[in-house]
Structure prediction request, 235 residues.
Amino acid sequence: MKKELTELLDKGYQAEREFIAALLGEERDAEGSIERWTAKDTVAHNSYWRKHHAEDILAVLAGESPIEVDDDQINAGVYSQYKDQSWEEVETLVETSLKRMGEALAALSEGDLQRSDFYPWEQGRPLWREIVGNIYTHPILHLSDWHIKRDNATRAAEMYQEMTGQLTSLDESPDWRGTIRYNNACSFSLLGDKEKAISELREALKLNPGLTEWSQQDPDFEPIRGEAGYKAIYE
Prediction:
């Protein structure tokens, strides 16, 4: 698992580098808001959480108690902290976050990665899943969302599909397979394949019912929200 997580850390980093390299001048220089992040805001957000999680892991390994935080409050603070910083400063944060997470992964044992008590609020999920979220799923979802909000759903769907391909082999448990199929449903919805999106979503929620509440709010499903098949899932 350590090897696979290290590879995912690199893939998440490479996705970010490709995202930055593909930005047009006006996209790099755009001004945003707390409701509509710019590309720079998005990259800063992803990097902050990668670094924060790495340092949290290292603190717990050093004997400190993990502290649950208010994500929304921190996100607002991160936005305010980095919105006026230069791209050079944000890219330094990217590199620092990559280095710190690499150090955290190196410090963890295979047994640590399977611990379900590393973070008490994780409700029995092994630590490796939390790490996957921070180093790969979380950044890819935010980069995809940036594309969606700029009417580039095709690129967002491609990123979902790439993510699904990377994550499928990590676990065979029903809730993990449900998560993968949920991402597939998001991808098909964004691509306009309503039938496949509804079918994948239905199967995803059977495997992982814990996703049901979020699925009713997830903006990725706006293209199918009015479909009879979508509504039937919740009846």
Observations:
- The mean pLDDT is 91.
